[in-house]
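Figure-free illustration: sequence to structure, shown twice.
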Amino acid sequence: MSVKAKADNIKMILFAAVFSVACFITSKDIKGNIFYYNSLNYQLVKSAIIFILIFLVTILNRKNSEKMNNYVSVYIAAVGIIYFADNYTLQLSGSLSFFRLWWLSLIHIVFLAYYLGLLIMKNIDFNKLSVKALKGYSVLYAVSFIVVFLRPISNNLTTNIVPGQGTLAYINYLIKYPNDSEILFLVVGNIIFFVPISFLLQAYFPKIKIYQQLITGFTIPFIVEGYQYIFRCGDVDIDDIILNFSGFLIGFLFLMLQNKTKNKQQDAQ
């Protein structure tokens, strides 16, 4: 084996190790544990460090792009299944759903860092690699959707059909309790969670039309809120629908930009 081949193997091993460990950096509610949740600032710093590390090791493995992508596709799907099992059984990542959701968010950040690293690479078959990676990620996304939105049937239901009222209540609460990261997590999450939908739709349906994308993105928030209303298991809020669709639109616009950029790169080659 040549020195160059050995160096590539070492880089691949480094990527696999960093990616694997990063997917299991949880935020627990057990004091004294190395992963104990201290504060929102601590959590954001940890997320930023993880993002940067994954992004760097991805770029470092440009020559191993196909092998690396195969690993990510399988591993991220497996982590999604493990998370799903833990959330409903042992709950090793925390006794409260808040901590388990922080772990879930970190797994998504790990994949995002990888995807962006893949996106900026040149001289690779990005379309082929991204589709495979997104299909693996779709398992994690489906798990996340079930955990976050398809809550158990109950009689705990609140409703709001006045646009802006729910968001204003959140803002007033954050002004009064600026250190309560749960509310901020909820508001930002309602936007960010719907960003990947366009990417996943294109991965599974490459010939999907723009109007079909928009109809799907508009419909899903109503399905989510409708489920919660029918089974009386959440806060049915028109503002959530607005935030959800806003997140979808952000993702849709990024997808259009990605496609335009990659098409230009292919034409130039």
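We now fold a second protein in the same way, so the two outputs can be compared directly.
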Amino acid sequence: MTDYSLKIKVDQAYKLMDDIQVSNPELTRTTGMTLREMLKYNLLQFTGFLFESDGTDGRAELAFISDHFGTYMTISQFLNFKYGKCMDEGFINTPPRCLLYIVKNDLTAGSVKASNGRPVSKEIVDLFKEVGTAFIALNGESVTEIANLSNYSLMLDDFLKQYGLYFTDMKGGIRNNPKSMDLRGNKNANIKNAMAEAKKKAANNAMSKEGLDVEQPETLEQLMEELNSLIGLKSVKQDLTNLINLVKIRKIREERGMKQPDITLHLVFSGNPGTGKTTVARLLAKIYKVLGVVSQGQLVEVDRSNLVVGYVGQTATQTAEVVQSAIGGVLFIDEAYTLTKAGDDKDFGQEAVDTLLKLMEDNRDDLIVIVAGYTDKMEEFVNSNPGLKSRFNKYIFFNDYTGKELKKIFDSMCKKQEYVTDKEASKYVEEYLTTRAKKHEENFANAREARNYLERCIERQASRIVKFDDLSDDQLRTLTIEDVKE
């Protein structure tokens, strides 16, 4: 019997494949098949891999395939997907070919997303799991089928985690993090780590064969160099360097069987808008991964609107989903003080805070939370709840940028966009930004001030030169006093 809800999900997945193909025709130009065809082929491989006859003749399985995938096969053709040339070597450790291209899509700016806003790769992984669950239930699940489905599902999850695309649904509740369990004394940790490395190697090889290589992880030295190259933020760099050194020493003590100092790595980033808090958080997430503080190193950036829902009970579920997506990395909550509205008993923000605190404790071995916002408001926020105060006792203060620092930021943005200022314009820019920094009006936005100013300059330059014939490269890239003057 056809499971129509599953059939609809398969059709929706096919539609997503078509959308990706249209948005990025270069993606699969050399593969010899469309993404839709690739997905269908990989689903057939998957069902062939799962199939154990157990005395059945396969008719139920063939009916399932025709009903859900729209493919009509004989039993011999189907068995070719289990035993024949259709089955890739190392199948259990290798992501389906279509998923390699879908991950590439998800990692591309402006990529196609699922209707619920999630990465397409997560939707496809969930589809494989649902197809597998329904398929092995046709004639009663065997131990082998259950084991194969479980191992293949874990491989898919690990592949998404490798690229920061793993988000767990709440249907099955919050699960313990595998890494956390290993750290608490699982004797099989070394075996599991070796298996994880094997899966990662197989996945990387598969990506490489398709010409879909992604950037290799940066080293600690590279990340620290990137941190120290940020303009300004002298005290921030020093505070974080001290914290990172502490983590490194704790790791050495751990390796030698010595007791660890009891510290919290959750942080409060306080300061005005545009002072680099999010930029630093992204770097810190990568640094924590390299140091082994977290397993994946993704940064999940949210604010109140991503956590709070206006109905009783739904805020807890929404917050839990967000936290689950950040396990293995860093959860960055901007303007966190908006979660606790003083004197408003009907506000659901407190429900988000309570859920957050519980999940921080449950996942303390593989989750870092950074809360950020205005200095005075963040102090009020942390002091509003004993649970918050005990977990967030390390403050990193982000000073406003000086005029000279804003000029450096402006020049850096110009360089990235292939613009330069001539001598007169450069002098004016520094004077203008210095004046803005000293006045520090209510709407002053630090680095965003420099960015918005540059955008206005580029617009004025375009209006000035658009009437010229035979524009030279210098004319296209140079900002003059006419362009920068406010």
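Summary for the second example: Strands lie at 267-271, 299-302, 330-334, 368-373, 395-398, 420-421, 478-479.
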